Write a sequence for this structure.
């Protein structure tokens, strides 16, 4: 994809364009504990430093859209943001988390260098405007119910509110019952808007409600889809990881085991370099 894009600064990381490395946005789905979050962050930082890939650490303090009301949601905003701020300071990496309500934006922006809008909320104008006004860049996940061209209106809302930078993220589209599919055409379409594009490799393999009271998934498809997206041409790859995904309280079936991350990122780096050459 040779469309020129306006790079976005995430902390001291420049994301976007043919001359910048592939940005990695990675971490656990939800903050389970301080100790586990720091452990994952340290391992990801080591891997990305080894591969010379920029890392933005991701974790959610609250999963407000769980399938079941009984499901674990996280540690809450105050404790979660404190842990994310510790990750940022200890490992010198930008951090990102989801926000779900306009009133959460300003507080989250004090701890995070990037704010993320969940896919189900991609059209929520008040939330987008609040995120834009924080002075932080914003990563918006394309709604599973939206066409890639619909994201141009989302971009317009953010730009009109003075966003410091915008990334658009593809994470699959609903198809039939309990299934997401990826249309790789969405990647160049969204990138033609002049902004960096992110491919969410782990949420793309979700099977919403596939376990009855929880979301299922097929982590075996993460690597093939991620490789395909980088071959098409994206600026960043988003993936969730855990030392023992099957024991994770959220999104375990589609997360990459932490022991498998280095090999996958090495493959993605090699593909990105080939495409950009």
């Amino acid at each position: 994809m040779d469309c020129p894009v306006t790079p976005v600064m995430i902390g001291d990381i420049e994301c976007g364009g043919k001359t910048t490395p592939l940005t990695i946005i990675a971490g656990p789905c939800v903050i389970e504990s301080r100790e586990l979050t720091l452990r994952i962050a340290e391992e990801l930082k080591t891997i990305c430093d080894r591969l010379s890939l920029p890392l933005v650490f991701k974790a959610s303090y609250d999963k407000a859209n769980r399938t079941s009301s009984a499901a674990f949601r996280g540690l809450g905003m105050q404790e979660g943001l404190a842990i994310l701020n510790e990750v940022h300071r200890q490992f010198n990496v930008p951090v990102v988390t989801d926000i779900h309500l306009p009133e959460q934006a300003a507080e989250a922006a004090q701890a995070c260098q990037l704010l993320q809008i969940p896919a189900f909320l991609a059209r929520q104008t008040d939330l987008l405007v609040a995120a834009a006004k924080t002075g932080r860049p914003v990563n918006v996940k394309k709604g599973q119910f939206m066409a890639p061209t619909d994201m141009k209106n989302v971009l317009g809302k953010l730009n009109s509110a003075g966003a410091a930078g915008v990334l658009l993220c593809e994470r699959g589209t609903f198809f039939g019952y309990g299934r997401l599919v990826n249309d790789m055409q969405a990647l160049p379409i969204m990138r033609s808007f002049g902004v960096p594009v992110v491919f969410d490799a782990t949420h793309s393999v979700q099977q919403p409600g596939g376990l009855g009271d929880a979301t299922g998934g097929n982590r075996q498809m993460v690597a093939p889809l991620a490789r395909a997206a980088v071959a098409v041409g994206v600026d960043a790859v988003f993936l969730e990881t855990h030392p023992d995904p099957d024991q994770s309280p959220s999104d375990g079936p589609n997360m990459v085991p932490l022991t498998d991350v280095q090999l996958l990122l090495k493959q993605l780096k090699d593909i990105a370099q080939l495409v950009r050459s």
